[in-house]
Amino acid sequence: MTVTVENNATNLPPVPPEATMVTLKIYRFNPENPDAQGFESFRVPALPSDRLLSLLLYVKGYLDGTLTFRRSCAHGICGSDAMRINGVNRLACKLLMKDLLPKDTSKEITITIEPIKGLPVEKDLVVDMEPFFDAFRAVKPFLITSGNEPSREYIQSQADRARFDDTTKCILCACCTTSCPVFWTEGSYYGPAAIVNAHRFIFDSRDEGTIERLDILNDADGVWRCRTTFNCTDACPRGIQVTQAIQEVKRALMFSR
User: Fold this and answer.
1) Contact at 8 Å (CB) between 88 and 100?
2) Cβ neighbours, 10 Å, residue 16
3) What's the rounded Cα separation, in Å, for the pair 210 and 254?
4) Average pLDDT in the 217-225 region?
5) What is the pTM of this model?
6) FRET pair for 74, CA 20 to 30 Å: which of 16, 47, 50, 157?
């Protein structure tokens, strides 16, 4: 089903003269009426400085208040607003319209927006994140130490800290995991984000849970499911070298770290 919504409302804010009218083609799903799922199109004004999230907020605020999506900080930190934008996983708050708008403003542009794949859709662009967080929790993403509680901070060299710096940047947006074809078809696969967060502690010189985490990732749902397609690295909004981190965990398993 595809529906087009015309902007006939009289209470819309004035359109800036430098704005370009774009069509947002948004996937809609209501669990109370699942047979009506499909795409709905909205015509909205866009400035080059707008984020895609701004356009979604325009739709929800002025055209259709039932549109449902997650968002929070709007600055690419919380990871709440991950969605498929023109077939690619992105954070709506980080994607600037200047990177999507055509140079010729007279040309029509349609932006397709869908929920991230591989997780159950709850409503419109909102998915159930619990399977994702179950995998995250399963790899024990916290510092494991033994002995008495320290009376001062753990000392670590700059070189030791740099060893896992890249994987500390994860914001758990699920862009990488839900871009993975293996995760789409093998729902039990831990997925790239869980492995990235395991990597962050496996290579932390202060941690004592490395063997335990490697044992977890060595099972049928662990790192060996990765097919090295690089989708995860391409999708990461923080620029983490996700595929490299997965390969480093594989090497740690093969060569005892």
Assistant:
1) no
2) 10
3) 14
4) 94
5) 0.91
6) 16
pLDDT at 3: 61
Tally of CB atoms within 10 A around 201:
21
Cβ atoms within 10 Å, residue 214: 19
Q: What is the mean pLDDT of residues 182-198?
A: 93
Of 3-7, 48-52, 84-88, 249-253, give the lowest mean pLDDT range. 3-7
Per DSSP bridges, beta strands 38-46 and 2-5 are parallel
